[in-house]
From TrEMBL:
GO terms for molecular function: nucleic acid binding. InterPro entries: RNaseH-like_sf, RNaseH_sf. It comes from the Eukaryota. This is Ribonuclease H-like domain containing protein.
Amino acid sequence: MNYPQGNGQAEATNKAIFSNIKKNLQEAKGKWLEELSTIVWAHRTTERRSTGITPFAMVYGSEAVIPTLLSEVVRDAPLNERQLSHNTDLLEETRNMALVHLPSYNQQARSFYAKKVSV
């Protein structure tokens, strides 16, 4: 199945990543590969105006946690199962919140575009 809007979304993501690479590499020429993972991580963990949440949260149902912020590991299998179930429920809720947010964003984008186009 062809999804033309997906091409535009991928292009927008690539454009943002390339823009950040250019900004970060003004002084460190030729080190784009070392910077790429940091830039992609920043892109995935930055809230989007269109959805009101991060791409990471859209995929995983919760915000990213930096490993150094984790204080202890829980090795309680039943507790982990309950938390996984709860997080799965939150994922669906997070995606639904993004869907609710989209019409408002689309209206704002239409209004912005109409102002730019009308002379």
